[in-house]
Amino acid sequence: MSASAVPRRRVLVTTRTFQKMEGAHWDALREAGLEAVSSGLDRTLDERELAERLPGIAALICGMDAVSERALEAAGELRVISMNGVGLDRIDVEAATRRGIVVTRTPGSNADSVADLALALMLAQARQIPRHERGLRQGDWSRRPGRELRGRRLGLVGLGAIGKEVALRALAFGMAVQACDPCADLDFCRKHGIEVADWETTLRSSDILSLHLPVTEETMGLIDRRALAAMKPGAVLINTARGELVDEAALVEALGSGHLGGAGLDVFSPEPPAPGPLFEMEQVVLTPHLGGNTREAALRTALRAARNAVAILAGKVGEADSIANPEVLKASEGDR
User: Catalytic pick from 53, 289, 300, 304?
Assistant: First the structure.
């Protein structure tokens, strides 16, 4: 067989933003001699749909698709799952590890975009922008007093790449910032005058509580009835991380009782959410999981996801970002 007749390894691309944009991410795959295969669907894939497309695929570049153990049973040739983003809660990393499949992600590539939205939600809630905008369109010129951000205490639950960017923006608005994160970057905190606080103190003293955590067994439902009851009366909850962090029924109760002053939510569980009480509350600002949905962030993320897939397939592990299951590499080295 001639060199030109050798079949190229195939990369399945399921994430919509990657597929819709032209850019260097496609070039990275082509220049590596890989054949990109689109999912053919303008949405996330369930496990059956993914399983149907995985045979003969060497790399998967995915978003919020259901990369379950059952789906991976069809992935005989798969060597790498490249998450086009950060969260791994839709990927069965343990199942991938058992099959010798490397899982990568792209932390920090959407940090600016998500941080921008977190501040936008704070401002929109503080100044009641959605309520006034709807009223004005209906000919209502009445105005309700809002709140300034200056002088209010922002509690950041999680101080990773996104949390740090939110902190810098909040400080520019004159807010006091405290962070609850056992792995907080203390040098960063000292440099910018950010207080490191424990969980109870953060709940009790924050005027605005902003979540920047992944979903794990420990963080699932973190904001429950007890946590909400411990929050400062009139406080505002901002969530641009994952919907599963918050007990939505408990949040509705806390808002309805007036204990909480409001909320700004970009994420839900499930997604898309069914219309419910939150949709009727004027003190709540809702957006459809668009935190990282800017062109700049999408291009950065797609390029890093493509390069991760290329690096793993080429055996250049050191060029890959944030490998979630490095034990796969150790096992393969031991087999040599």
Answer: 289
